[in-house]
């Protein structure tokens, strides 16, 4: 019975995809929206039942839907692994996903392609569920590619914008780079274990040499970096904000981008065997957390600020993995899903209110006009900035504490500075949007209105979660989530650092201090002395410009990868037109010479004979045409040249062999 | 006195080569067709020579089949050339470059 | 001398197809134009009968006509695939030929004759039979490529195909004659004995083998013998292109594998190097040149070249030093699986191109697909599915095909080749998804806004349904097909 329940979780949204995709044009868009939301809601209910069973019995189960690939020693089931880690991810994906679906009903109302939107969203949900539920690497990979494809389709949703299509392609190509690494890791796993099932792989992992474990871990890491937008592959995420706001909330904040973190935690056994890879994870995370936060300081597009903040927060999760604090990583993943979905959705509500404007310089003083949105946005800001007792405080503090206790003071320092910046830019955002003078375009000023309940109710639920979500992990190290995940996300063989109560309180105090000072600086610059920020920016134009232009990384990549390709193309073009063309013409002339020779021969030798026979005349007449290299000859010549090259190669191949 | 087998092979090789070169350098489709026939006949020389050298009749049987196939091929080829001529009023292969890169 | 009845029974499917083709050609002139469809249905009926006969005898391994012909699971697998593809081509042609104004029932006769050639190819145990099969397959194809007699491009495609095709079969035949000299027989088994006895470095065998590789390399469109492919695929009527890209390629691979493994199985290192070079060259060129194409048929032609490159990976696996037994047979079965799945995806993609062609709309240029999702959701979605599958993105069948192939490669110790394949699969995503982008992320231009009428008749619907079923079902439940290919590859253990 409960096996069926597990299988039903991805089946509900899948049915919705089929229904909306195949028959969507037969009924009204409103019904399509209801089907889309309802299916995710049903999945959420099933997930809750699964959670109940998990809590009461505590057993890990594998549910095999059917044998997917069967042939020789390659045996892969479409199977689901239901353990505490999967259960947590299930709840995040279906729960937050459901709220975002409900919100979309209001937000996307009246947009063209409403049914299509819900079809893609549900398809995304199916893929994401496969990703987190799979009991082997291949099912994980299907989900992995599936979410990438849906992300591609949804970023390009507004197809009348060229920038959207470009962003979609960029996201897909960057992700493919990561995917290639991931697939290579899968091959390596298969070669070493002759199986792709987690249970088999993780139980036999001791047979692996450290070098092989490191190789696999690095390949996995490449995949995770691509999907979770870490340095150096983070560039696609800010551009992905071209998609509709609910998409940003669901895919590019709450679920898909956290897949990399999930994957690292899922494979922590492999990473534990490869300390070099593990600490690389940590440093990539730390550097990304700080780096993205600095860019977030000066961005003026509301969604871009949130995008860089997402990159930065994902960096925290990687950092946590890197210091072996897998539970803290998942804890932060959960709370981040709450408050970042909240922030994106309320940003959507703001954008909705001011008629599509995304530039925060053209907002201000909105708090009285859209009070509910203001309230929930403030909750989100407080949560992400790390003001206790909201969700972000507990999870971020835990990550920083782990970095400190494990002796990674460099990582701790980066995380701390990052936290300061996070608090600053989030309050900057809040002040610029909601307080101070209104800078809204007078034409839209009187149109400003609060969003409908369909949008605000999910916001309020998410705000509630962002407030209380942190208590899953209270008290630190001994909260509910720690006990729940202890069996699946505890690093193997790591020494346990006893943390004294005093140190814990001290670290918490520092964290609070950091958060409050970030708030304070933002208050000083954007509320108390509104001119100060511009003064500062004017005083250090170089630094400001660098940040505003995102460290010129896009330009750097252009210069490093795109430009050389183009230059290569131009060089190739030159080679093509000057060298190859000449060669072709030379060969052509030689062929022509041969042809002319044969024609001469024909004319003077055969002609006489042919004349006697009587029909040679025609042949000569026909063959004496303008001498020009024709295509068919090239093709036939290619066959002959290919034959000669291959024989030549074969001789080298064979003699090379015999010499060796 | 019999002619050694290598002589036959050299002969057939030369005929084959003439055929290949003919396909490569000639422009008239009919001559190209004839060059291909030369290639096929080179193989026939080979088959017959080997057949008598090995005292094995299979090669000669193969020749009959090869001849038949060659005849069928020529029939179809000429039909195609006629259709081509109707379009282009030419059977020079240089004139047929509608389909390229 | 009498022919034993048992031998005739063995080639019953071939006889049925030939008979049907002859009846068709006789009935064609005396059938009124309104009844021409009956002839198509008749040929389909013949295929269905053959399908059941071949399916029922799949487990046998019978030699006939003094070992000239062999009917084993390997041959039966290819035949089943060929029946299916030919049947779908005929179904599609019933609508497509009318759209193009070339609905002559000869067409079906030619398809059946060509099919007979393919069946003979995959069943041949003797180079004579295989050569006859190749010619019987190719000659009707030359004619069909030029079936749009009134269109210069079609005739040009036909002429190019004819010149290069007979050129390459001349090369092939010369190789066969040299092999005959070396072995005193053209039977694959006898050749294997002679090749083993003469050893690795006998020049006669080496040159003959290279000539055979060139001949077959041409038929499967492998670099550098691929140059005819884009021109001919573009110029030929689309349903003929489908037949060439799918059926003729599958049959050629079937015969290619059998010749290399049965006749040259003892000298794997000899052919493995050249095949490896051809394989990598094909992967590189096919995928890269496809990027710059603007004509969909041409792009799909390069894509079919690239897919031949992937299938050759399986051949390299079989030939790789040290792969014996199960791994070698995995290589063979991965080629079979790859081509079976490739058939569905390519057939589907070309069918969309074919049914778009109506009322003056070409449906062949990339431009013609602009904003297709706005104009015809269903067609756009199916094209999306086929493109995703061709790019090898899960959960479509294209992913399974590549996965199984690369797994076999990694198993044989060729992880680096799998990496090369993966890199070019990533490149291929670029041009396949460009079609998706054009369909979904661009507005149709004003002239295209007019409701697109598709040539959607019951028969084309069946073709598309089959292709989609293949792409989707084989993606989510490929096990039956994998078992069949594994079973069919057992002779090459």
Question: Can you give a write-up of this model?
Answer:
The complex is a heterotrimer of chains A (660), B (101) and C (493). Chain A has 660 residues and is mainly alpha-helical. Chain A contains 27 helices and two strands. In chain A, strand 1 and strand 2 form a beta hairpin. The longest helix of chain A is centred in the last third of the chain and has 61 residues. Chain B is mainly α and 101 residues long. The mean pLDDT of chain B is 88. The relative contact order of chain B is 0.13. Chain C has 493 residues and is mainly alpha-helical. Chain C has a domain of 226 residues. Helices cover 76% and strands 1% of the residues of chain C. Chain C is built from 20 helices and two strands. A two-stranded antiparallel sheet of chain C has the order 1-2. In chain C, a hairpin with a 4-residue loop joins strand 1 and strand 2. The model of chain C has no long low-confidence stretch (mean pLDDT 88). Chains A and C meet through strand 1, helix 5, helix 6 and helix 27 of A and helix 7, helix 9, helix 12, helix 14 and helix 16 of C.
Structural class of the secondary elements of chain C? Answer: mainly alpha
Total number of beta strands of chain C:
2
Number of helices of chain A: 27
Largest sheet geometry of chain A: 2 strands, antiparallel
How confident overall, as mean pLDDT of chain C? 88
Largest interface: A-C, 57 and 68 residues
**Which residues of chain A form runs of ≥5 with pLDDT under 50?**
606-630
Strand order of the largest sheet of chain C: 1-2
How do the strands of the widest beta sheet of chain A line up side by side? Answer: 1-2
Give the strand content of chain A: under 5%
* Outline type of chain A: globular
What is the global morphology of chain C?
globular
Terminal residue distance of chain A = 64 Å
Short summary of the structure?
Chain A is mainly α and 660 residues long. Helix content of chain A is 75%, strand content 3%. Chain A is built from 27 helices and two strands.
Topology:
The complex is a heterotrimer of chains A (660), B (101) and C (493).
Chain A: H1 2-23, H2 29-57, E1 61-71, E2 74-82, H3 84-107, H4 114-133, H5 137-155, H6 162-193, H7 198-203, H8 210-227, H9 236-239, H10 245-254, H11 259-266, H12 268-273, H13 275-296, H14 302-322, H15 326-353, H16 371-385, H17 391-405, H18 409-434, H19 442-445, H20 453-468, H21 480-485, H22 501-528, H23 532-539, H24 541-548, H25 553-613, H26 616-623, H27 631-659
Antiparallel strand pairs in A: 1-2
Helix pairs in contact in A: 1-2, 1-4, 2-3, 2-4, 3-4, 3-10, 3-15, 3-20, 4-5, 5-6, 6-8, 8-11, 8-13, 10-15, 13-14, 13-18, 14-15, 14-17, 14-18, 15-16, 15-17, 15-20, 16-18, 16-20, 17-18, 17-22, 18-22, 25-26
Chain B: H1 5-25, H2 29-54, H3 58-88
Chain C: H1 5-10, H2 12-30, H3 36-56, E1 62-64, E2 69-71, H4 73-100, H5 106-123, H6 127-145, H7 152-183, H8 188-198, H9 203-219, H10 228-235, H11 238-263, H12 268-291, H13 296-319, H14 325-356, H15 372-375, H16 377-390, H17 397-411, H18 415-440, H19 458-476, H20 479-488
Antiparallel strand pairs in C: 1-2
Helix pairs in contact in C: 2-3, 2-5, 3-4, 4-5, 4-11, 4-14, 4-19, 4-20, 5-6, 5-11, 6-7, 6-11, 7-8, 7-9, 7-10, 9-11, 9-12, 10-11, 10-13, 11-13, 11-14, 12-13, 12-18, 13-14, 13-17, 13-18, 14-16, 14-17, 14-19, 14-20, 16-18, 16-19, 17-18, 17-19
């Amino acid at each position: 019975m409960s096996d069926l329940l597990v299988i039903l979780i991805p089946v509900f949204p899948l049915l919705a995809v089929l229904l909306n995709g195949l028959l969507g044009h037969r009924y009204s868009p409103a019904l399509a929206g209801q089907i889309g939301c309802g299916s995710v809601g049903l999945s959420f209910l099933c997930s809750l039942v699964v959670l109940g069973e998990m809590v009461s019995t505590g057993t890990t189960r594998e549910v095999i839907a059917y044998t997917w690939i069967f042939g020789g020693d390659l045996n892969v089931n479409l199977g689901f692994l239901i353990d505490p880690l999967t259960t947590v991810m299930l709840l995040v994906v279906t729960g937050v996903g459901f709220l975002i679906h409900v919100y979309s009903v209001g937000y996307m109302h009246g947009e063209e392609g409403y049914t299509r939107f819900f079809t893609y969203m549900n398809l995304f949900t199916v893929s994401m569920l496969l990703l987190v539920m799979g009991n082997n690497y291949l099912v994980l990979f299907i989900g992995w590619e599936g979410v990438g494809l849906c992300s591609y389709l949804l970023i390009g949703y507004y197809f009348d914008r060229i920038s959207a299509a470009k962003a979609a392609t960029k996201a897909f190509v960057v992700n493919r780079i990561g995917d290639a690494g991931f697939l290579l890791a899968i091959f390596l796993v298969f070669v070493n274990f002759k199986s792709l099932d987690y249970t088999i792989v993780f139980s036999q992992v001791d047979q692996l040499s450290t070098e092989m474990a490191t190789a696999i871990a690095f390949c996995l890491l490449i995949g995770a970096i691509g999907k979770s937008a870490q340095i150096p592959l983070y560039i696609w995420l800010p551009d992905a904000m071209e998609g509709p706001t609910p998409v940003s909330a669901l895919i590019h904040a709450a679920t898909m981008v956290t897949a990399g973190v999930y994957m690292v935690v899922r494979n922590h056994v492999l990473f534990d065997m490869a300390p070099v890879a593990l600490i690389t994870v940590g440093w990539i995370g730390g550097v990304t957390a700080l780096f993205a936060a600095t860019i977030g300081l000066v961005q003026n597009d509301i969604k871009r600020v949130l995008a860089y903040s997402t990159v930065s927060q994902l960096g925290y999760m990687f950092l946590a993995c890197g210091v072996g604090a897998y539970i803290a990583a998942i804890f932060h993943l959960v709370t981040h899903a709450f408050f970042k979905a909240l922030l994106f959705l309320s940003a959507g509500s703001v954008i909705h209110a001011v008629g599509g404007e995304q530039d925060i310089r053209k907002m201000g003083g909105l708090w009285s006009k859209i009070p509910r949105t203001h309230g929930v946005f403030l909750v989100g800001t407080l949560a992400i900035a790390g003001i206790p007792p909201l969700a972000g405080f507990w999870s971020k503090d835990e990550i920083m504490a782990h970095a400190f206790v494990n002796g990674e003071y460099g990582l701790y320092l980066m995380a701390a500075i990052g936290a300061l910046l996070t608090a600053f830019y989030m309050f900057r955002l809040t002040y610029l949007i909601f307080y101070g003078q209104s800078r809204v375009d007078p034409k839209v000023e009187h149109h400003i209105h609060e969003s409908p309940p369909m949008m605000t109710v999910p916001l309020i639920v998410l705000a509630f979660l962002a407030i209380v979500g942190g208590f899953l992990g209270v008290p630190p190290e001994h909260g509910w989530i720690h006990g729940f995940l202890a069996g699946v996300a505890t690093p193997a063989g790591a020494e346990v650092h006893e943390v004294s109560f005093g140190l814990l309180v001290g670290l918490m105090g520092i964290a609070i201090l950091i958060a409050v000072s970030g708030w304070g600086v933002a208050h000083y610059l954007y509320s108390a002395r509104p001119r100060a920020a511009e003064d500062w920016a004017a005083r250090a134009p170089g630094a400001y410009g660098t940040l505003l232009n995102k460290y010129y990384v896009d330009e750097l990549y252009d210069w490093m990868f795109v430009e050389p390709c183009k230059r290569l193309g131009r060089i190739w073009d030159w080679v093509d037109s000057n060298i190859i063309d000449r060669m072709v013409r030379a060969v052509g002339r030689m062929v022509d010479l041969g042809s002319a020779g044969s024609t001469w021969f024909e004319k003077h030798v055969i002609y006489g004979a042919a004349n006697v026979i009587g029909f040679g005349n025609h042949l000569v007449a026909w063959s004496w045409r303008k001498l020009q290299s024709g295509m068919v000859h090239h093709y036939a010549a290619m066959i002959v040249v290919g034959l000669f090259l291959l024989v030549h190669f074969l001789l080298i191949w064979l003699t090379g062999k015999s010499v060796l | 006195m019999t002619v050694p087998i290598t002589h036959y092979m050299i002969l057939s090789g030369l005929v084959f080569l003439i055929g290949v070169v003919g396909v490569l350098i000639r422009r008239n489709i009919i001559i190209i067709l004839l060059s291909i026939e030369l290639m096929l006949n080179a193989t026939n020389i080979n088959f017959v020579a080997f057949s008598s050298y090995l005292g094995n009749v299979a090669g000669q049987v193969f020749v009959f089949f090869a001849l038949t196939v060659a005849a069928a091929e020529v029939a179809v080829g000429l039909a195609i050339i006629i259709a081509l001529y109707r379009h282009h009023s030419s059977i020079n292969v240089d004139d047929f470059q509608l389909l390229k890169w | 001398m009498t022919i034993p009845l048992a031998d005739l029974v063995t080639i019953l499917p071939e006889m049925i197809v030939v008979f049907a083709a002859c009846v068709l050609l006789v009935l064609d002139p005396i059938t009124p134009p309104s009844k021409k469809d009956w002839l198509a249905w008749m040929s389909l009926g013949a295929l269905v009968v053959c399908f059941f006969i071949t399916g029922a005898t799949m487990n046998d391994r019978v030699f006939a006509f003094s070992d000239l012909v062999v009917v084993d699971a390997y041959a039966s697998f290819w035949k089943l695939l060929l029946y299916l593809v030919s049947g779908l081509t005929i179904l599609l042609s019933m609508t497509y030929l009318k759209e193009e104004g070339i609905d002559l029932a000869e067409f079906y006769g030619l398809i059946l004759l060509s099919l007979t050639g393919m069946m003979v190819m995959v069943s041949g145990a003797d180079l004579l039979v295989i050569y006859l099969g190749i010619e019987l397959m190719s000659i009707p194809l030359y004619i069909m490529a030029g079936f749009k007699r009134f269109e210069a491009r079609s005739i040009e495609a036909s002429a190019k195909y004819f010149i290069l095709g007979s050129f390459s079969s001349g090369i092939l035949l010369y190789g066969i004659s040299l092999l005959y000299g070396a072995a005193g027989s053209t039977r694959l088994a006898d050749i294997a004995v002679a090749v083993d006895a003469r050893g690795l470095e006998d020049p006669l065998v080496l040159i003959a083998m290279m000539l055979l590789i060139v001949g077959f390399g041409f038929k499967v469109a492998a670099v550098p013998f691929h140059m005819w492919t884009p021109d001919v695929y573009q110029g030929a009527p689309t349903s003929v292109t489908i037949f060439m890209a799918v059926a003729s390629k599958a049959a050629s691979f079937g015969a290619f594998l059998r010749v290399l493994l049965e006749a040259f199985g003892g000298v794997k290192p000899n052919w493995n190097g050249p095949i490896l070079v051809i394989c990598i060259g094909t992967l590189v060129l096919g995928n890269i040149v496809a990027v710059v194409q603007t004509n969909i048929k041409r792009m799909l032609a390069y894509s079919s070249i690239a897919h031949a490159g992937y299938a050759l990976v399986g051949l390299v696996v079989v030939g790789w030093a040290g792969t014996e037994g199960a791994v070698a047979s995995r290589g063979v079965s991965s080629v079979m699986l790859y081509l079976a799945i490739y058939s569905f995806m390519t057939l589907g993609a070309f069918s969309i191109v074919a049914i778009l062609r109506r009322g003056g709309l070409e449906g062949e240029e990339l431009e013609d697909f602009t904003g297709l999702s706005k104009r015809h959701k269903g067609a756009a979605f199916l094209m999306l599915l086929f493109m995703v599958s061709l790019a090898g993105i899960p959960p479509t069948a294209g992913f399974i095909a590549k996965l199984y192939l690369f797994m076999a490669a990694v198993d044989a110790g060729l992880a680096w080749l799998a990496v090369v394949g993966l890199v070019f699969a990533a490149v291929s995503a670029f041009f396949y998804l460009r079609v998706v982008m054009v369909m979904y992320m661009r507005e149709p231009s004003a002239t295209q806004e007019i409701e697109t009428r598709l040539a959607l008749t019951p028969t084309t619907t069946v073709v598309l349904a089959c292709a989609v079923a293949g792409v989707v079902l084989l993606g989510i439940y490929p096990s039956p097909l994998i078992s069949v290919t594994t079973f069919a590859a057992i002779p090459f253990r």
